[in-house]
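Encoded backbone
================
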Amino acid sequence: MSGGQRVFLVCTLSVFLFGVVGCRQTVRFAGAAVRQNPLRSIGPSADWTFNGLDARVLPRLRPGSYASATRGVQFLGAADLGPHGYRFTASEQSGIVYTCRAGHVDVSHVRKAADWTGYLAAVVLEHIEKGRTSFQVKQVEPSLYYIELTYPENWTDLDGEERERIAREVSRDLGQYLAWTGLTWHEILTWFGYRFKVWQSEFPSAFSWEDSYSNLLGTHIAVAALQDQTRPFSETVTQLLQTWLAELGIQPAQTASETTEALRGRWFSAQWHYTWIYERNFDVGIDDGYVTPRLAPSVAFCKEPEPWPLAVPTVDRLARYGFSMRLQIEPRVWEERRIMMIVFPEYNGRTRRLEPAVHFPLLIGHIEQDAIARGMSCAGGGAFGG
């Protein structure tokens, strides 16, 4: 499909779907159709692959949703989720669920994080198979991720089967780490004003109380799915998503809606088409290596609920096989100067790269102080997985 044909198809689908399902869903459906269809016939990109994934097929676009009882927000129960689809599937549903042990969960963020974890694991696996020591990846934003990979000294002495087994485990670990890092970077960027769609600010949802936990949950689901090679990735994610949400105590859609409505004026408010989010959660595991969810207060149907913290991925696990990795990010966004001046006070505009384990805590600390100055309520960020 040519560039002109893509533009025509986006416009046609957007106009049609806007009248049927509204603006937010239009972006999801139209973007998915154009981005996925040309890739359906492509086969595996290498000999070492994960079932149902291809390192040349990017995850499709999945805009998230406010966890607020406002126009356009869809609340879901366990029976409403539908099958997960790495590629476009009309029966998949995304929206907000409420759970007793994780609070609000943005299902779109969970799905997006799972897909990016799977995709990045497939990319890393292909590079390890080819013996590459350095490569770059991109996610949704223009930022470029530089990866330097050090192999164990005896790597070439191992037989092919053992190398593949180890490569799969290392790829799962790195896929989760890279996805989590990229999703956290997205929250940082949107706080500083980055927007994927120029007409729509993403600041209201930057570090909203459910975002980081939803992202992290998706990466954990993906890692478990990648360990099961008897079924395609999407099929396994479908089952694991149901299992995890059941363990977390998912509630009916009506209960989720009523619980959220009770938070109006404290955690969020809305006027016309604009939503204000007051409650933020900057916990990305910087203090203790875990992200703790934010539960709604005084929820009668959850009997003495205990939050279920999730461990953030780190690169330390690579050492068990003699691997190590260095990750750097080149921002490549309009907001770059504002961000770089915080971590590099002497920044002069020349290209520099961030190291997440070093610089993310500085940025999130700055953001927390900014949130306090703005009068927002927030849970502390607290070490970033490194």
Observations:
- The chain has two domains: 1-41, 48-379.
- The mean pLDDT is 87.
